[in-house]
Amino acid sequence: MQGNIAQNKAVAMDIKDVLQLTSETRFIGELQANDKEGVLAEMADALLAGSPITNKETILEMLKSREALGSTAVGPGVAFPHGRTLAAQNLIIIVARSRQGVDFDSMDGGPTHLFFMLIAPPQDTGNQYIRSLAVLTEKMQDPALREAALQAADYAAFCLVLTEGQG
Amino acid sequence: MNRQLALLVSIQNLELQLRDAQDEVKAKALETMGFPMSVEKIQRDIAGLLEQIEPRHRSYYLRLKTRFENPVVPVWDGHCTGCFANVPTAFTSVTNVNRVMSCESCGRILFQP
Fold first, then answer.
1. Which of residues 109-128 of A touch B (CB under 8 A)?
2. Residue A73 to residue A80: CA distance in whole angstroms
3. Which of A3, A6, A11, A150 has CA 20 to 30 A from A127's CA?
4. Touching check for A20 and chain B: CB below 8 Å?
5. Which CA distances in Å does A143 have to A14, A109, B21?
6. Scanning every residue of chain B, which has its alpha carbon at the shortest distance from the alpha carbon of A129?
């Protein structure tokens, strides 16, 4: 079903398209934070680095209000904090990992190790935001891929895992 | 950022979430992925934030909302992103960074993203 959401529109998206929306500077190989608020703040810092956005509080408030609707830690060990904000001009994705794991109010109660943060603009052409989310949530259904993504040595290896399913 | 302005920006961000939640296709897609959006909860959150806005700012915001879908907008490259008019450089000065300012051309409330 999720695959259909990503693929059944005029312009299909795949994981390679989604990875175009992030970069090495927006990849945190090992988070320092050990709680939910800290994770969001650390990822917001990565968003601001090299971005015209300067107001971190605006981003954090949006993410917290989205989390208040229900935790975005929906996959086993994976969270997808996301939302639209006036402050974004384009869809931006920040990726982070915590091998130790963080309590992110996950549905299964377990620690969260992988984080994909999607910051979307008020309007996005081709519904890129929701389709990217669909691609990522579907991809992260695979336990072996999740483990390989967590163990990947660096950003390049991480991307390889997601695109080829190998480290 | 001025607390009142931060609240106005938060309200506007919630309005964006509300728009997705009210869009049947998007809401269904999000729900399928495990992200159900409660229209009622978002509306309650918006109402709760509105109560925290000073009456003069609240009435101004609500008036703007009858005219524009986006009554609060960021300033990019010295322009109001609502009407694209130039914003006076005073907007970014230290003196004004903590005030609730509006576009001299369209009246929308401005903030530095």
1. 122, 127
2. 6
3. A150
4. no
5. 19, 17, 30
6. B26
Residue A2 has its nearest CB partner, among B17, B33, B76, at B33
* Gap from A7 CA to chain B (nearest CA, Å): 12
What's the average pLDDT block by block, 10 residues per block, for chain B (113 residues)?
A: 90 94 94 92 95 95 95 92 88 66 93 87
- This prediction's pTM: 0.91
Could you read off the pLDDT of A92-106 as tens digits, one per residue?
999 999 999 999 999
- Give, in order, the Cα–Cα distances in Å from A7 to each of A3, A12, A135, A138, A159: 6, 5, 9, 12, 20
What is the length of chain B? 113
